[in-house]
Amino acid sequence: MPLTTSAFTDPALANRTSASAPIVRREDHDRVALVVLDRPKSRNALSDAMLAALAETFSGLAEERRIRAVVLAAEGPVFCAGHDLKEMTAHRTDPDRGRAYFADLLGRCAAVMQAVVNLPQPVIAAVNGTATAAGCQLVASCDLAIAAANARFCTPGVDIGLFCSTPMVALSRNVAPKHAMAMLLTGDMVDAAEAARIGLVNRVVEPGRERPEALVLAERIAAKSAVAIRHGKRAFYRQRELPLADAYHYAATVMTENMMARDAEEGIDAFIGKRRPTWEDQ
């Protein structure tokens, strides 16, 4: 059972049934935080309020050492439909035709995606239904992903004259270039099996099992040394942007620091002594 629950809503609107009141719900399952996009009537679109709620949620999680893994899920038949196009279109009447708003919106969205990557805890997407455009970007930004067999993914901006350039960043760092380009150039839907084949998700499960399976996986990760996981996640993303020699030098530096941690000493001693380690997260 969850230990605690909390909700983040548009402060201007308390009615959670309102289409303009996106909600991010959090439930803590022992050492795992379940973060749920809870605006199904609006397809969990990344509106201004939704992005603000996600940013606040991830900012809080980054400071919580008690939480050792995060599962990101969504209510309703759509995981996330990407940006709220109606909200964006409303800014066409701005004096600059929305240019400043669009730049700010995309910057805030990029910050949320990077917050997922920069969280010290691993983040597992539990994907039901469809994840399109920036919604697909959100899945690709997570460290791991488990998808329901009925899940589908696409970057369909090209169909409306708007190439999915920002989703491309996360997508192209998860799948091979030709697979990424095929999705970006055609806008075609990719089913869950194909998403697993090309590396966008880790595993496909029966519909309704994606969230429980993600929670089980998160708890397995939460049982590891948190200090080792923090070192490893940060290093994973940093090293792959470096040339090979630099990557090895950086990884060796990180591993040396990790070796000096109390948990590494305890883990090695436990392995040699054939006993279960007791983590101190130091």
From TrEMBL:
Q: Which UniProt keywords apply?
A: Fatty acid metabolism, Lipid metabolism, Transit peptide
Example of a GO MF term = hydro-lyase activity
GO biological processes: fatty acid metabolic process
Note one Pfam family from the annotation: ECH_1
Superkingdom is Bacteria
Q: Which sequence ranges form a coiled-coil region, renumbered to this chain? A: none
Listed NCBIfam families = PRK08139.1
Its function? Answer: May play a role in fatty acid biosynthesis and insulin sensitivity.
Q: Which PANTHER family match?
A: ENOYL-COA HYDRATASE DOMAIN-CONTAINING PROTEIN 3, MITOCHONDRIAL, PTHR43602
Q: Give the record's family classification.
A: Belongs to the enoyl-CoA hydratase/isomerase family.
What is the recorded name of this protein?
A: Enoyl-CoA hydratase domain-containing protein 3, mitochondrial
Native species of this protein? Rhodoplanes serenus
Name the gene that codes for it.
crt_1
